[in-house]
Amino acid sequence: MAITKWIFLSLTMMMTLTLTLTHDQQVPCFFIFGDSQSDNGNNNPLITNAKADYRPYGIDFPGAVPTGRFTNGKNMADFLAELLGFSDSIPPFVAAQGSAILKGLNYASGAAGILDSSGINLGDRFCMNRQLQNHMATIDQIAALLGNQTAADIYLRQCLNVVNIGGNDYINNYYQPPPSSSSSLTPDAFADELIATFSLQLRSLYDLGSRKVAVFGVGLIGCIPQEISLYPITNGSPCVDSINIAAGLFNDRLVSLINDLNTNLPNAQFTYINVTSIALGGPSLIGVKVLDAPCCEVQKAGAAAGQCLPDGAVCGNRDEYIFFDNFHPTQISYSMMASRAYRASLPTDTSPVDIERLVRQ
């Protein structure tokens, strides 16, 4: 069954990876674009129901404090920063200032989507277009810090950019009850709309000076507890297969888009992170037992349904759970996913290269 094949890098391989990493920072700066899988505090000041600035979120984060990360501890952006040799996590856009921005910024925002309208049901958020606008403002500041735009351009070409967005365009748009304006489209037509918009956004990122860009596909969102609770499961599958199939249509188009960008944009180095391959193939996650239920007590109704209940109960065996709430993985899941994105375990995990090779090119 698909959910029982949720596979990640083994603890043994993770230890080997840690031991062979250099302590030197592999890129001068790291910029993160995305949604709640990467958000580390950007949504805290916003008027939105997509917030994680309360316990039990952050229960396993250093200091056991909620920071706005939608998990029990560190998220995937944090682990990628560690693998890249950064001594600290990349700061959120809303909190960074001064020369700290030279190491990069995290623009990710819970409920954000490729489409401006995705996630509007939850309130304010920095959609992908707004994240790009924020990055433009950051580039102006970097140019001022380095003395001129030419110096900033040279600097930015060496940096890594990670884009992990698209799930909310399905969860909080296409499949959002009651039906959204997008739901009248066929899954193929909606995937076409998403890719057309995403193509413009990735090209804008290139035009802003980015050259090394890792783009994550949409994962098996039909297997998250919230979607399983909302939609009927057929043919004995443990997941909502129709949602996974629809997301797969987008991923297929994204692979073609990445190839097109690399072919037609001078010096472009885009790569695709195949989250589905990471989920379904390779060594197993040792010790994980609970695959389709949240670790925290979740809110049952309202706009924040599926997120952790404030000060609610939380499981003690968090490293045995895939999901922390009804939407978001646990820290252990994020660590394994980041490891496979950084250093592919299977040839299908990334295309054309993994992040480790991308930053060395």
Q: Return the CATH topology.
A: Rossmann fold
Helix count, DSSP H or I runs of 4 or more residues: 11
The level 1 CATH classification is: Alpha Beta
Report the uncertain regions. 1-22
Shape: globular
Q: Estimate the strand proportion.
A: 5-15%
Largest sheet, in brief, is: 5 strands, mixed
Give the topology string: H per helix, E per strand.
HEHHHEHHEHHEHEEHEH
The count of strands amounts to: 7
Radius of gyration: 19 Å
State the end-to-end distance: 38 Å
Into which percent range does the helicity of residues fall?
Answer: 25-40%
The neighbouring-strand order within the major sheet is 1-2-3-4-7
Helix and strand content put the structural class at alpha/beta
* CATH arch. level architecture: 3-Layer(aba) Sandwich
Q: Say which CATH homologous superfamily is assigned.
A: SGNH hydrolase
Q: Mean pLDDT, as a whole number?
A: 91
How many individual domains? 1
